[in-house]
Amino acid sequence: MEKNTQKSKPNGGRGGTRKGAGRPKGSRDQVSIKALLEELDKQTNGQAYEELLVTDFLQARHGNDSQLLLKYHNLILNKVMNSLAKIEVTDSKDAIEAKQQAFAEALARLTGVKTDK
Q1: Reported pTM
Q2: Torsion over CA of 108, 110, 111 and 112, rounded to 10 degrees?
Protein backbone atom coordinates (compact mmCIF):
# COMPACT_ATOMS: atom_id res chain seq x y z
CA MET A 1 0.00 0.00 0.00
CA GLU A 2 1.12 3.52 -0.75
CA LYS A 3 1.58 5.90 2.09
CA ASN A 4 -0.26 9.23 1.89
CA THR A 5 2.52 11.78 2.34
CA GLN A 6 0.37 14.90 1.97
CA LYS A 7 0.07 16.86 5.18
CA SER A 8 -3.33 17.79 6.50
CA LYS A 9 -4.49 21.32 5.96
CA PRO A 10 -4.98 23.76 8.82
CA ASN A 11 -8.69 24.16 8.02
CA GLY A 12 -9.76 21.07 9.94
CA GLY A 13 -8.60 18.43 7.47
CA ARG A 14 -10.90 19.32 4.60
CA GLY A 15 -9.57 19.09 1.08
CA GLY A 16 -6.54 17.25 -0.21
CA THR A 17 -6.24 13.59 -1.09
CA ARG A 18 -8.15 10.90 0.72
CA LYS A 19 -7.22 7.27 1.06
CA GLY A 20 -9.23 5.11 -1.32
CA ALA A 21 -10.73 8.05 -3.20
CA GLY A 22 -11.07 8.10 -6.97
CA ARG A 23 -11.26 5.36 -9.54
CA PRO A 24 -9.24 2.23 -8.90
CA LYS A 25 -5.98 1.99 -10.83
CA GLY A 26 -6.41 0.21 -14.14
CA SER A 27 -10.19 0.63 -14.20
CA ARG A 28 -11.87 1.32 -17.52
CA ASP A 29 -14.22 4.06 -18.57
CA GLN A 30 -17.84 3.08 -18.20
CA VAL A 31 -18.54 4.12 -21.80
CA SER A 32 -15.92 3.28 -24.37
CA ILE A 33 -15.59 5.24 -27.60
CA LYS A 34 -15.60 2.02 -29.60
CA ALA A 35 -18.85 0.81 -27.99
CA LEU A 36 -20.43 4.22 -28.47
CA LEU A 37 -19.55 4.32 -32.18
CA GLU A 38 -20.72 0.73 -32.67
CA GLU A 39 -24.08 1.53 -31.06
CA LEU A 40 -24.42 4.69 -33.14
CA ASP A 41 -23.70 2.67 -36.27
CA LYS A 42 -26.27 0.06 -35.28
CA GLN A 43 -28.99 2.59 -34.38
CA THR A 44 -28.54 4.62 -37.59
CA ASN A 45 -28.22 1.66 -39.97
CA GLY A 46 -24.63 2.58 -40.83
CA GLN A 47 -25.31 6.22 -41.64
CA ALA A 48 -22.10 8.26 -41.39
CA TYR A 49 -21.76 10.60 -38.43
CA GLU A 50 -21.26 13.58 -40.75
CA GLU A 51 -24.57 12.79 -42.44
CA LEU A 52 -26.28 12.67 -39.04
CA LEU A 53 -24.86 16.09 -38.14
CA VAL A 54 -26.11 17.59 -41.39
CA THR A 55 -29.54 15.99 -40.95
CA ASP A 56 -29.82 17.28 -37.38
CA PHE A 57 -28.61 20.73 -38.46
CA LEU A 58 -31.27 20.88 -41.17
CA GLN A 59 -33.96 19.75 -38.72
CA ALA A 60 -32.97 22.53 -36.32
CA ARG A 61 -33.04 24.99 -39.22
CA HIS A 62 -36.45 23.91 -40.48
CA GLY A 63 -37.81 23.83 -36.93
CA ASN A 64 -36.62 27.42 -36.33
CA ASP A 65 -34.77 26.34 -33.19
CA SER A 66 -32.38 29.29 -33.05
CA GLN A 67 -30.46 28.10 -29.95
CA LEU A 68 -29.78 24.65 -31.39
CA LEU A 69 -29.01 26.14 -34.78
CA LEU A 70 -26.43 28.45 -33.20
CA LYS A 71 -24.79 25.47 -31.51
CA TYR A 72 -24.59 23.62 -34.82
CA HIS A 73 -23.15 26.69 -36.53
CA ASN A 74 -20.46 26.93 -33.85
CA LEU A 75 -19.67 23.23 -34.06
CA ILE A 76 -19.43 23.21 -37.83
CA LEU A 77 -17.52 26.49 -38.08
CA ASN A 78 -15.00 25.39 -35.46
CA LYS A 79 -14.29 22.23 -37.44
CA VAL A 80 -14.24 23.96 -40.82
CA MET A 81 -12.19 26.95 -39.73
CA ASN A 82 -9.54 24.77 -38.11
CA SER A 83 -8.98 22.96 -41.39
CA LEU A 84 -9.22 26.09 -43.58
CA ALA A 85 -7.25 28.55 -41.48
CA LYS A 86 -3.70 28.22 -42.71
CA ILE A 87 -0.99 30.80 -42.58
CA GLU A 88 1.27 30.95 -45.56
CA VAL A 89 4.66 32.50 -44.98
CA THR A 90 6.73 33.56 -47.93
CA ASP A 91 10.22 34.96 -47.68
CA SER A 92 12.26 36.81 -50.24
CA LYS A 93 15.58 35.42 -51.45
CA ASP A 94 17.43 37.90 -49.24
CA ALA A 95 15.50 36.81 -46.16
CA ILE A 96 16.17 33.13 -46.90
CA GLU A 97 19.89 33.79 -47.41
CA ALA A 98 20.06 35.79 -44.18
CA LYS A 99 18.36 32.97 -42.28
CA GLN A 100 20.71 30.41 -43.82
CA GLN A 101 23.74 32.51 -42.83
CA ALA A 102 22.44 33.02 -39.29
CA PHE A 103 21.76 29.29 -38.94
CA ALA A 104 25.24 28.41 -40.23
CA GLU A 105 26.84 30.84 -37.77
CA ALA A 106 24.81 29.52 -34.85
CA LEU A 107 25.66 25.95 -35.77
CA ALA A 108 29.34 26.84 -36.07
CA ARG A 109 29.31 28.41 -32.59
CA LEU A 110 27.65 25.29 -31.15
CA THR A 111 30.04 22.85 -32.80
CA GLY A 112 33.18 24.99 -32.64
CA VAL A 113 33.67 24.86 -36.41
CA LYS A 114 35.01 28.03 -38.00
CA THR A 115 33.15 29.44 -40.99
CA ASP A 116 34.78 31.24 -43.90
CA LYS A 117 33.59 34.76 -44.50
Answers
A1: 0.39
A2: 70
